[in-house]
Write a structure and sequence with these properties.
- Helices cover 33% and strands 28% of the residues.
- With 155 residues, the chain is an alpha+beta fold.
- 25% of the residues are buried.
Length: 155
């Protein structure tokens, strides 16, 4: 038995996310998620509904070869963004403190194992880590080849 459609649209860094919930007895399902015009179906139990934000994070993380979740007031975030900029990489940067649902995204990053939550860097859709991991890769001369494989660098 379906109860009327409940819709909860919101915007994440110029991406419109519209979760439509069909409540069923005894479970709920998220039937359609719209992210900048693309539709994909996801089914969740009511208990795992919080994973919808984690799926939104995964979708945002795969939008470009390099994606950084950041806060505008974080000095380590600034350092990582500057490093990528100096390489000539143009990452998608999501400033969580400037986004309407930034706190929820930060909580989703924490549930995904990001500690600290910012900066968090994704390369080629895969979570690489934060400042320590990025600087270690850079010092080991592994970061540039990884960026080339992901298509973030052309040289």
């Amino acid at each position: 038995m379906l109860i009327p459609l409940v819709s909860s649209p919101f915007t994440i860094n110029n991406f419109h996310l519209d979760l439509k919930l069909h409540k069923q007895i005894p479970t709920a399902s998220v039937s359609t998620t719209t992210l900048q015009g693309s539709h994909f179906s996801q089914i969740f139990s009511l208990q795992s509904l919080s994973s919808a934000m984690e799926r939104a994070v995964a979708r945002l993380a795969s939008e470009r070869p390099v994606v950084i979740f950041s806060k505008s007031s974080c000095c380590m975030c600034h350092t990582i963004k500057t490093l990528f900029s100096d390489f000539g990489v143009n990452p998608a940067v999501h400033e969580l403190d400037e986004m309407p649902r930034g706190r929820e995204i930060e909580q989703a990053l924490a549930r995904l194992g990001c500690n600290p939550t910012v900066p968090t860097v994704f390369i080629g859709g895969e979570r690489v880590g934060g400042t320590n991991e990025i600087m270690t890769l850079h010092l080991n001369r592994s970061l540039i080849p990884m960026l080339k494989r992901a298509g973030a660098l052309w040289v």
